[in-house]
Amino acid sequence: MSEKVLIKGNYAIAQAALNAGLECYFGYPITPQTEIGEYLSGEMYKRNLAYVCAESELAAINMVLGASSTGAKTMTTSSSCAVALMQEALSYACADEVPVVLVNVMRAGPGLGYIYPAQGDYYQAVKGGGNGDYKMTVLAPSTVQECIDLTYRAFYLAHKYRNPTMLLADGLLGQMMEPAEFGEYPYPEVDNSSWALTGAKGRDGRAIYSLGACEEKQIKRIYHLFEKYKQIAENETDWEELNTEDADILLVAFGSMTRNIKAAMNELRKEGIKAGILRPITLSPFPTQRINEISKQVNNIIVVEMNMGQMVNDVKIAVEGNAKVDLINRPVGQWLSVEEIITGVKKVLENSYASV
Amino acid sequence: MQVFKIPDSIKKDSKYTFCPGCDHGIAVRLVAELLDEMNLTEKTICATSIGCSVFLYDFLNIDCIEAPHGRAVAEATGVKRARPDNFVFTYQGDGDFASIGLAESMHGALRGEKITAICINNTTYGMTGGQMGPTTILGQKTTTSPMGRFVDTYGYPIHIAEQIALCDGTAFSARVALDTVSHINQAKKALRKAFQVQLDGLGYGFVEFLATCPTNWKMTPEDAHERVRNEMIKTYPLGVFKDVTSD
Amino acid sequence: MEQNFIIAGFGGQGVLFAGKVLANAFMFLGNNVTWYPCYGAEMRGGTVNCEIVISDEEVSSVHKENADYIIALNQLSFDRFLSKVKSGGMMFSNSTLVDENKLRTDIEYLSAPMTQIANESGYSKLANMVALGALTNIIPALNENVLAKAIQKVLEGGKEKFFESNLEALKLGIGCLALA
After folding, report:
1. How many domains is chain A built from?
2. Do C40 and A177 make contact, defined as CB atoms within 8 angstroms?
3. How many CB pairs under 8 A join A and B?
4. How near does any CA of chain A get to the CA of C62, in Å?
5. With an 8 Å Cβ cutoff, are C33 and A6 in contact?
6. Which residue of A38, A200, A333, C137 pairs with C177 in a disulfide if CB–CB is 3.0 to 4.6 A?
7. What's the CATH fold of domain B24-246?
8. What is the pTM of this model?
9. Which of A6, A143, A262 sits opposite C24 (nearest CB)?
10. What is the DSSP string of A186-252?
């Protein structure tokens, strides 16, 4: 399957999951990601794989938790307000160290919001809406090709680290078509025989649980989890960088918004404004260290996102005051155009020169 | 002659932490005896729940996944669909199964999931200290119905086994009690059937155990079992409400 | 350089299908391309549209505020999208169903009786392919071969039997604008 095909992001994610060895899918319909479940219902039936139309997202994510606890490659896909319903189980999955793969094709919020594309679930994904100290691994594709590549990676990372891994896409990526290549699933299979529930044959029973009735054990558990998160950060933090070597200003965006800032960067460079780009591919772990390094070299850092300013705060933490950090944003709907971004950047520059 | 033996599927070093007179201990033992007798221990995966029933994995030497409150049937569905050759059961309280988890519990039955669900009905939330639950009987005083459960404010209790029997995917649904030896024997028979329908691929097996909670009922174990006989069984009649193998 | 197209019409006119054919054709011609539909409740209001962007680099914004070419298959689409044609761009409409209201003077207008041509030849649902055929006269890079290959691609997976009729309608489209 090395031929380029014109394919919708949602179908690309679904097919990539099958290529990655998906064994079980549990889901509930919600726009703009319903095609994933529709596509998989037929394909998984043909392949004799487990597919359940769950009664709710709450049930779906808990079915995922059950199936994942047996070591099976399992996925659910959903969107924003319905991912909100799953937060309790995601906290459990982190505590239980169960390899859940979850796709959020973001729509607009808060509340019911609408099906317009948006990036308002950055906090939900990265900070978590569930209880307690935990971190999911979060990957953000910017093209349909990356919907495939990062779905592959999500399965690998989820199983390698036994940590819930989310593909955070947006309605635009889910609905658009773009040429992409599937290739083969590029990662090795992860051995889960040391922990998966298979029935206690020839060994003692195993319990996967997060009840922390013993304080000492509970403290140990949390330190263990955070030691693991540190490892994930060391090994798996990923980002894309363009023209940062000589940049005076750094544009930061994630997901499909990156497409627009790339075009804006090219235009700005034509006008002699030395702009560079950093795009986090892993939102969690966040490329904090690299942004900190670049912040010592540039004057301005401008975050462009389709929300009221969420990732910008992680950028500010990374920058530690080394550069001025500004935000160009809109909450939902029509993506900020290249022209709007250019105008916004120029405005920021005028203001910062004025303040010098 | 040996008259009693600790089932092999009970952990050797385990000590029940249930309150004196609590029927959880009997229910767990029946589960363990049947896992032994039906040779299921090595292929079993259990979805435990939240409440006093959460401690199951401390007592049984089997694979367990702890489900969030109310989601045991959803978790069991995931386990069974992923590993259809395993034997999968849930062990839940009435609040877990029939209040917060009613949707999952019933949809599992409607889909005819080939799992067995066990619900321990003690008419109260035991672990949190005796609040009103979905099966709290009319007139029963709890910490959140201090004047007694009356309909205007609190609505009606749910008859779980009858409701589950109405679902087309249910293969077996019964209500049993643990207050006398003969009831315990009947309970084991029912549970065996609820296990067997799963093994035979017939659908959802369900058993509701009427059980004591002497601590929160503020009764002696003896009085608590008296209450099961005089009050609970009158409200929640024992019996088999569906059995697809009996026709 | 980027160029974008919006195809718009009412449900049943094959707007999304035509867009997929066009996007595949551009992909076969070696362009970077994206296809983006209106989706959700908008679809139930009766009008449907999709946007195709082509570029020699990675496509930037896949959903732009205006377009170089707008293909309007019905009146509602013409009226709605007239203001979205880029200055110097083109509004290409289906004259069977559209009264051209040339309110703007900074764009080009072109029309063909797409539905009429399709109906007269017995391909009543294929005004969309007539439109794509006609487009070969406007966009020099497009031709019958590449569009035929694209139609074949989009019909893959069970709809192959519609290939001949789509191809015939495409050919009629190629001819119609040459005559006009």
Report:
1. 2
2. no
3. 137
4. 8
5. yes
6. C137
7. Rossmann fold (3.40.50)
8. 0.95
9. A6
10. -SPPPP-TTT--S--SSS---EE-----SHHHHHHHHHHHHHHHHHHHHHH--EEEES-TT-SEEEE
Q: Residue A96 and residue B65: Cβ atoms within 8 Å?
A: yes
Pair A245, A279 in one domain: yes
Residue recorded with tokens 């009664």 = A55
Q: Which residue has the tokens 């004047």?
A: B147
Chains A+C touching (3+ CB pairs under 8 Å): yes
Q: Are residues A80 and A227 in the same domain?
A: yes
Distance (Å) of CA A136 to CA A9, A80, A348: 22, 16, 34
Note down pLDDT in tens along chain A; length 356 residues.
Answer: 468 999 999 999 999 999 999 999 999 999 999 999 999 999 999 999 999 999 999 999 999 999 999 999 999 999 999 999 999 999 999 999 999 999 999 999 899 988 888 999 999 999 988 999 999 999 999 999 999 999 999 999 999 999 999 999 999 999 999 999 999 999 999 999 999 999 999 999 999 999 888 899 999 999 999 999 999 999 999 999 999 999 999 999 999 999 999 999 999 999 999 999 999 999 999 999 999 999 999 999 999 999 999 999 999 999 999 999 999 999 988 899 999 999 999 999 998 765 54
Under 8 Å CB-to-CB from B75, ≥6 apart: which residues? Answer: A62, A63, A65, A66, A69, B47, B65, B67, B90
Query: Are residues A132 and A17 both part of a single domain?
Result: yes
What are chain B's partners, defined as 3 or more CB pairs within 8 angstroms? A
| Binary contact (B65, A69; C-beta < 8 A) | yes
For residue C6, which of C45, C48, C39, C43 has the smallest C-alpha distance? C48
Reported ipTM exceeds the 0.90 cut: yes
B104 to A62: CB separation less than 8 angstroms, yes or no: yes
CATH number for the domain that contains residue A154: 3.40.50.970
List the single residue in C2, C23, C64 with the smallest CB-CB distance to A6: C23
**Domain C2-178: assigned CATH number:** 3.40.920.10
| Residues of B engaging A, defined by a Cβ cutoff of 8 Å | 11, 41-45, 47-48, 54, 57, 60-68, 71, 74-83, 86-87, 103-104, 107, 111
Q: State which H helix or E strand residue C162 sits in.
A: none
* Domain coverage including residue A332: 239-355
Please list every residue in chain C whose beta carbon sits closer than 8 Å to the beta carbon of residue A143. 58
Residue A173 included in any domain: yes
Number of Cβ atoms within 10 Å of the Cβ of C57: 11
H helix intervals, chain B? 24-37, 56-59, 72-82, 94-95, 102-111, 151-154, 160-165, 181-199, 214-217, 221-227, 233-235
Each residue of B138-177: pLDDT tens digit?
999 999 999 999 999 999 999 999 999 999 999 999 999 9
Q: How far is CA A105 from the centre of its chain?
A: 10
pLDDT digits (tens, 9 = 90+) for A117-166: 899 999 999 998 899 999 999 999 999 999 999 999 999 999 999 999 99
